[in-house]
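Why does residue order matter? Because the sequence determines the fold. Keep that principle in mind as you read this record.
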Amino acid sequence: MERLTQLGADIADLWAQYGGSYLNGIKNTLILALVATVIGCLIGFICGILQTIPHSKSDPPVKRFFLALIRVIVRIYVEVFRGTPMILQAVFVYYGLPYFTNNSVRFQNIWLAAILVVSINTGAYMAESVRGGILSIDPGQTEGAKAIGMNHFQTMLYVILPQAIRNIMPQIGNNFIINIKDSSVMFIISFTEFFAVHRGAVGATYSYFPSAAIEMVGYLCMTLIASFILRWVERKMDGSDNYELVNEDQLVMTSGTYTHPQKGTPFDEHSKEFKERERTRQELKHGRNRGER
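Structure:
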């Protein structure tokens, strides 16, 4: 208990000194993760769509060659950026370009470098998610769209992608949460995000564990809030589960129509309307009896 009390006091001291820096780091982390996820999703959608363009042996050789070349390029991009750590990607992008170009090409804006690294990394993962989401749609819908005269672009835009986006929405949210945490490696290029603030505070105060506790709580809060918002978006995309409009449709028989054993409906033998119609039909067929004239 004494150690917990001491931990709380150390955390309070750290927050008093570096609270503004921690909050600024949280802000930078969220902005970087959000912007990079959006750009990465756009990259992933482009790559995923390019990988699913249909072709056959009857297509012109030029078309088949370019589609094969595009798929090879996309595959190399995906495998390279999924198979290497983001921290090394940041090193190669930020420090490698000046090294190979003799400082003629270098990033003057640290934000641009960080967004580029996280975006292309996210795009590599999203490319496979989008491809899988597109392939998960029933091929019959593509055939139906073609049957009514839609070309491939129209089919993807109006039929396939709206459904694919809903299918891969959990993966988009997952990538956003991963980017919140993995953006911590951007300290390697001196980007001031949440983890970089932690490193600075530890270097000045040597309070490693209290600062790490602040970091853990901060990251946990960010990811929990992001998860809650993403679940809310998914529910909104699913639409309402209320089907009362169906029961109120004039073309649908109201509930309880067939449940009353005495009154019945206008269409069964218990109803007054049915008996009146039957009597009229019998009178027209056989004539009224003497007592009713």
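The chain has two domains: 21-239, 247-287.
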